[in-house]
Design a protein that fits this description.
Elements lengths: L1 H21 L2 H23 L4 H19 L2 E2 L4 E2 L1 H24 L4 H4 L2 H23 L4 H26 L3 E3 L3 E5 H21 L4 H32 L14 H21 L5
Antiparallel strand pairs: 1-2, 3-4
């Protein structure tokens, strides 16, 4: 099983990096729209849609929303209109604040979001902003590197949390949602990200005035990634399933690999735009 997980992870990494650095911004965003659409297919099942036709209709509804967001692109530069993106990402940020309250209040909070229709609406609020965010970032002059930076922040936060939690974890973070996560693990993930940003700042020769705010953004992004993970864990626990799907051998569903990024990417991009994208 471990070999299968590693092999799948390597293939995913190679495909993602190739697409990120070889495709033009529009091509990469189109590919990510397909990825997000499949995420909607899995989310529909987690929300309680049993019929394939109903899940397909949900996917089509999400794609229609992405097409509407695509209307904000400024062609031929292939850059997303920041005046369109910023307010939408602010809404996404507000949504994740609500999600935090729901995770903290689980299982009693299921009264508010456990309904199929509400849960489908939550899926839109989770999936559409992540596509919007990654489309904004990849269209920037250093777009692929920005996207890769967010992915590395999330990966380091997850790896640091895993090993620190195993070694020192004593206090559960959200026992009703994900009993294996601990506050010590979260702290270990934050420290890992802080070290990464410090190395990045030294390598990029950033002055302190530029480095400090982006250190804060990186740490907030890492914390957001934990929330994204917990939200999907909450939904899976409510539905009584272990994974969101079976498409990725050894890993489960696509959402099981993207859950942390669903919160981290919109949060990072929101701060990126608010700080006038000076990185």
């Amino acid at each position: 099983m471990l070999r299968l997980r590693v092999a799948t992870a390597v293939v995913l990494a190679l495909v993602f990096l190739s697409a990120l650095f070889l495709l033009p911004p529009l091509g990469f965003s189109a590919l990510m729209a397909i990825v997000v659409a499949y995420g909607a297919w899995e989310w529909g099942a987690l929300a309680g849609l049993r019929r394939a036709t109903a899940r397909a209709a949900y996917v089509i509804a999400l794609l229609a929303l992405l097409v509407w967001l695509f209307s904000g692109w400024e062609l031929p530069s292939s850059g997303l209109n920041k005046e369109v993106a910023l307010p939408l990402l602010l809404v996404a940020g507000a949504w994740w604040a609500v999600a935090l309250l729901w995770v903290q209040g689980y299982p009693s909070s299921a009264v508010l979001w456990g309904n199929v229709v509400v849960c489908l609406g939550v899926g839109i609020l989770v999936l559409a902003p992540v596509w919007l965010a990654i489309s904004v970032l990849v269209g920037e002059p250093q777009g692929p590197w920005l996207v890769l930076t967010v992915v590395l922040i999330v990966a380091l936060a997850d790896i640091g949390a895993y090993f620190t939690g195993r070694a020192f974890g004593r206090h559960q973070l959200a026992p009703a949602v994900s009993p294996g996560k601990t506050w010590e693990g979260v702290l270990g993930g934050i420290v890992s990200v802080a070290v990464f940003i410090a190395v990045l700042g030294i390598w990029g020769e950033l002055d302190v005035q530029a480095w400090l705010p982006w250190t804060g953004v990186a740490l907030v992004t890492a914390l957001a990634s934990v929330l994204g993970d917990l939200l999907e864990s909450m939904l899976k626990r409510h539905r009584g399933v272990k994974d969101s799907g079976t498409i990725l051998p050894g890993h489960g569903g696509l959402l099981d690999r993207l859950d942390s990024l669903t919160a981290a990417l919109p949060v990072f991009t929101l701060f990126y735009l608010m700080l006038d994208h000076r990185l």
